[in-house]
Amino acid sequence: MRGTALPALSGHPIEFDSYVFDLDGTIYLGEALLPGAERLVEGLRDRGKRVVFCSNNPTKRPEDYAEKLTRLGLSTDPSDVYTSLTATVSWISRMMPEATVFPIGEEPLVMALAEAGIAMSDDPERVDLVVTSYDRGFEYRKLQIAFDALWFHKRARLVTTNPDRFCPFPGGRGEPDAACITAAVTAGTGVECEAVFGKPSKDLLDIISAETGLDPATSVMVGDRLATDILFAHNTGMCSALVLTGEADLDQLSAAPEEQRPTWVLERIDDLLDYDRVSA
Ligand SMILES: [Mg+2]
After folding, report:
1. Are residues 132 and 189 in the same domain?
2. Which one in 7, 49, 85, 224 has a CA-CA gap of 20 to 30 Å to 194?
3. Is 75 a domain residue?
4. Ion ligand 1 — residues with CB < 5 Å
5. CB 57 within 8 A of CB 173
6. pTM of whole model > 0.90?
7. Which domain holds residue 125?
């Protein structure tokens, strides 16, 4: 499969202007950069390309990611990092600016809502919007508040920061992610999510484009997940490269629907620089 170009090719993968990289499973795994990540990012920057990092993980702020990337050897400014929290806060500010929110999430979500001036409460009689998220402090009390707001008082709406089932860890392990929390709330209330932020939602790329000037037609999305990263590229009109260092494997790829099929497949991320050699 390595080097097998799928249909709708638009030239060599380093001929584009901008590169959007997923983080977990793509740039690093746990506390280590994946092989070739430093060479690739430095190679792209040396060629004057725009490099942006984009994670669905809502448990860290852009500042945290920039610090981690810099510590691992990829000097990064927080303004080059976007997370699902960016899109979540933007949507609430535009669509429900007066809403009182009950976040089921970690401190970065609460801080992002507070910084945007969004009201929060754990009183189900006052909650207009329940926001589920990746929450390692999830507990029955939170589930009860969401249940009361959504099912008993029938006044709240339900959205989630990101659609991911788990966050990949080294050694094939992982941590349950936001989809597990959303499923628990939906199972009890029968209320489905109205909006799912982060990749593959186009909202996140609209924000990145507005802030950086990135044009999807001259951009490549690089990631390890078909249903988020590669579908995100499809939904936004970007070409895409799937790297086989995280969740997706060739079995998943061969079973994927058309909209989750990448433009290029890479065994390691810096194959992007040498795609002609790889495909020879
Ligand atoms: Mg990933």
Report:
1. yes
2. 224
3. no
4. 22, 24-25, 224, 246
5. no
6. no
7. 86-196
